[in-house]
Write a structure and sequence with these properties.
Chain lengths: ~300, ~400
């Protein structure tokens, strides 16, 4: 009943489609950013990082902390990038490099452990209160106030786009970027050709943490954060990467934006309960489709 | 019932007189109550508030000459154990208090969850327990006979907003049934209790619920729900999702300029919406169990304002803070207990239980009269509105210090 009438609203007042679309695209850009980091780590190191979302929340707390101390949270984006870079490096050197050549299960457990420790540490440091970094921007209103765009969300969108562009150029043109791509294609061959894969892994993991940190700083400005919110961002990243495939950067961006939009429409039509359920449902669907594609592929090979 | 109250007042007053004139205190024996309460762990902040409330009440009662039971008098004392905020530990400690320490009477723990764990134990041993901070409706449908609660249950939290909306509609010459309600409640026992109360009251006025969203536990974005609010233009928007729900709602209501004339949500104080989102939070309606500005009073603690003053004087930790209602509740629980002991005239647990069941007394925390399920049915939840950044009582009209500002004026 309610679902039908919700769909009816969208048909009768199309302006709300626009409102949901804009809202979804803006937030989706930040999802895409965190997912891109995961795609890197997954593709290059074959580590499925379950602490992805907790890196994001850490970045969020950095921006919030700066905001509380009179520094504009926008500065939190570069600061979180740097701090998380160092944190990522530390985590790689102490934990990840020990599990990188172990089986899948070991690395999953290790990163899950890291996720738990980070969220508990944040809880101890900042308490479980919900926080938000107030960037002090206004909103623009269109169509008689029916469509609103919070300026901070647009700024986050631009930041995310710039950062993504920066990372892509870096991967394409720099020496390290080439080394990373070579390692992703074939780690052994890369090693034979004189690439220090350990260094590449370390760099990749740090870069991922840094990207997450920056994404988190943006999240703290546009939404609210809490020590235990990390898991939802981990799930989103996994769904996006699984849907797009990790070698496929345009795919990751498209999937990220699409997920943002899908969440908004799902929440609107089915109710807020399904806003995140729809994401997980999508994951199942993607896996089923992938499985069918691959089984067809296997049959051809046979 | 009335004569009980008068009689109590007379006893308390005479006890106080006797205490003042002669040195009768010395003759009092000690009566030990037990309580397992969260002094560490995730509920410790509020657990300690409750403990302070218990201690403050006992000091006050003991200073006034103790509790008179029959022709004897007793000084109250509580044995506390720390339940570490875990229900299983709470139940163990209740057993220990009853079996090893031989306490005959118990004061409640902190939170509905812990109370739920301890109540079956006290019930099994027929130990009367007065609890102060477990509001969940589910505590009062188990048929417990020995558990009493001084606070209002959670389904009443936002129900008063419905009544207020109906009142406003009538004053404008509209039918209350013309009111459209939008609701967004978290999917957890407390918020669903709150929701149940709202749905029931909305049905009473035949109001129409146009949005009924359940918020997932870790939702940090409500914009889809709020877009729907923009589309459907309800007259009343209600939100309950603990402090994170309140924070998310306040933030996005401001960002999206949601112009619903009446917005009611729980946990405004805990989320500090006046401090963090002062512009958006203007005009929010927030339910509370108790406020120091209410006109309740009793002979021992005086008025609510007086309680507030005395606590601040006695406990320096609260000097610059608002006294949390959890503390006032705890104090009221001890007060009710001491009154029931006096009325029972004996320390027999059955008699004390019956006296508790017959309680009908005014306190600084509100009137206390128990339903047969054990919850207090005489004290309403009060609704405060944020006006000029301050919380002022606007409903029920009997206790209101300000008129409700309608429509709300977001800055």
């Amino acid at each position: 009943m309610q679902i039908l009438s919700n769909i009816n609203i969208l048909i009768e007042a199309p302006v709300f489609n626009l409102a949901l679309l804009i809202e979804g695209l803006l937030i989706g850009s930040v999802f895409a950013l965190a997912a891109y980091g995961l795609a890197l780590v997954w593709g290059v190191m074959n580590v499925k990082n379950l602490a992805q979302g907790d890196f994001v929340i850490m970045g969020g707390y950095i921006a919030w902390y700066l905001g509380e101390h009179g520094i504009h949270p926008l500065f939190g984006v570069p600061v979180a990038f740097l701090i998380l870079w160092c944190f990522g490096w530390l985590i790689y050197r102490t934990i990840i490099y020990r599990v990188i050549d172990k089986d899948l299960f070991t690395s999953l457990l290790a990163t899950f452990g890291i996720a738990l420790v980070i969220s508990q540490l944040l809880n101890l440091l900042f308490s479980s209160d919900t926080q938000t970094a107030d960037a002090g921007f206004e909103s623009w209103f269109f169509f008689d106030g029916m469509v609103s765009i919070a300026q901070v969300k647009l700024i986050a969108f631009v930041c995310a786009a710039l950062l993504a562009a920066g990372v892509i150029t870096f991967m394409k043109n720099s020496r390290m970027g080439q080394a990373i791509r070579a390692t992703a294609q074939d780690a052994r061959a890369a090693k034979v050709l004189g690439i220090d894969t350990d260094k590449v892994y370390c760099f990749t993991f740090s870069l991922n943490a840094a990207i997450c940190g920056a994404a988190g700083a943006l999240i703290a400005m546009i939404w609210v954060i809490q020590p235990f919110y990390g898991i939802t961002f981990s799930i989103r990243s996994f769904v996006i990467v699984t849907a797009a495939g990790f070698g496929n950067l345009p795919g990751v961006i498209a999937a990220g934006l699409g997920m943002g939009v899908l969440e908004q429409f799902g929440g609107f039509i089915l109710g807020a309960t399904f806003q995140q359920a729809i994401v997980v449902g999508l994951l199942v669907l993607v896996l089923v489709v992938r499985q069918m594609q691959q089984s067809r592929h296997r049959q051809v090979v046979q | 019932m009335r004569h009980f109250t008068k009689w109590t007042l007379a006893t308390v007053a005479s006890v106080a007189l006797v205490a003042a004139s002669s040195n009768a205190n010395a003759a009092c024996e000690e009566l030990v109550l037990g309580s397992a309460i969260s002094l560490t762990g995730k509920y410790s902040t509020n657990g300690i508030h409750a403990q302070n409330g218990y201690e403050f009440a006992m000091k006050k009662i003991n200073d006034a000459g103790g509790v008179k039971v029959g022709d004897k008098c007793y000084k109250l004392k509580v044995t506390y154990y720390d339940d570490e905020s875990t229900p299983a530990r709470g139940a163990q400690l209740a057993e220990r208090l009853i079996n090893q320490d031989k306490v005959q009477f118990m004061l409640g723990p902190y939170s509905s969850g812990l109370t739920k764990a301890i109540a079956p134990v006290t019930e099994k041993y027929k130990i009367p327990m007065v609890e102060a901070v477990g509001a969940s409706r589910s505590l009062f449908n188990k048929g417990y006979k020995y558990m009493f609660a001084v606070l209002s249950t959670s389904e009443q939290y936002l129900a008063s907003a419905i009544a207020a909306a109906a009142e406003i509609a009538k004053s404008q010459g509209r039918e209350p049934s013309s009111i459209k309600i939008a609701m967004a409640f978290e999917n957890d026992p407390f918020s669903l209790d709150v929701r149940a109360g709202v749905v029931e009251d909305a049905k009473k006025y035949a109001m129409k619920i146009v949005i009924d969203d359940k918020l997932p536990r870790d939702l940090s974005d409500m914009s889809a729900t709020l877009t729907k609010v923009k589309a459907l233009k309800p007259d009343l928007l209600m939100i309950s999702g603990h402090s994170k729900g309140a924070a998310t709602a306040a933030r996005q209501i401001g960002e999206m300029k949601i112009s619903v004339p009446m917005i009611a949500l729980t946990h405004c104080e805990a989320a500090n919406v006046t401090g963090k989102f002062p512009a958006a939070a203007e005009g929010f309606l927030c339910p509370t169990q108790w406020a120091e500005t209410l006109t309740y009073k009793d002979p021992l603690f005086g008025s609510a304002a007086n309680y507030n003053k005395e606590v601040k004087a006695a406990l320096p930790a609260y000097k610059d803070k608002t006294i949390p209602y959890q503390m006032a509740q705890a104090t009221a629980a001890v007060y009710v207990f001491s009154d029931a002991l006096t009325r029972a005239g004996s320390l027999d647990r059955k008699k004390v239980r019956d006296a508790l069941a017959a309680t009908d007394m005014p306190t600084f925390y509100g009137h206390v009269k128990f339903h047969e399920a054990g919850n207090n049915i005489a004290k309403p939840m009060v609704l405060r509105q944020i006006q000029d950044g301050k919380y002022v009582v606007v409903a029920p009209s009997k206790y209101a210090s300000h008129k409700i500002a309608w429509p709300r004026m977001a800055k």
